[in-house]
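Why do we bother with a discrete structure alphabet at all? Because it lets us treat a fold like text: something you can write down, compare, and reason about line by line. To make this less abstract, here is a complete entry for Chlorophyll a-b binding protein, chloroplastic. Read it the way you would read a sentence in a foreign language you are learning: slowly, and without expecting to understand everything at once.
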Amino acid sequence: MSAQFASTAVVGLRAPKTTKRSQRSVSVRASTQPMWFPGMDAPQHLKGELPGDYGFDPLNLGKEPKDLEWYVQAELQHGRWAMLGVAGAAAPEILTKMGISDLPNWHDAPNYQGYFTDATTLFWVQMLMMNWAEVRRWQDMRKPGSVNEDPAFSGNKLPSGIVGYPGGIFDPLGYAKGDLNKLKAKEIANGRLAMVAFAGIMVQYDHTGVGPVANLVAHMSDPAHNNVFQAKFIGF
């Protein structure tokens, strides 16, 4: 109650002509919307409606609605790529340590000679396939619903009016039919964590010369010496 009163009082001081009704709405919004820094007010363009919205935009990059739409999609895609990247960096190392396979460290994967074809062919196949998928995603962002039906399997459509989220053949378990907002919040939270995690993987490799699993094992075996402040161990 005191926080609400303080928030209303501050609004009143900053804008003397503001009506009591608008003051009350700002106070309620400030008390209900979770914030990245407790006690701060969210920017006007972040109203708690987006998945994972904690009012974080100190530079007001999303002040323009069109810019905000693009940033939302950019963060979503970067988060998804980061989740795949973290899994792709850790899984081969785990399988190799378990003796199931003999795969290279994520950093050495581009020079691996065990693929079914050469790296140049893989690169161009990836570029062509990703270009096709990304162009369709871009078209859907520009005009929502314009490419919401699967071109190969007719009848499989994305959720109506929802950009950037799967449906149809890409949602075989029917998650989109449930609490989609809750799943969106979980996905963006995991995506943000993955982006930070992969940045950590790159920094760790630069300092230690080994992968994330080896770094984790070393840290757990001797946390006092193998940590971020003393990252000098290589080839354990």
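What the structure line is telling us, in plain words: The CA atoms of residues 90 and 213 lie 6 Å apart. Confidence is low (pLDDT under 50) at residues 1-16, 18-30.
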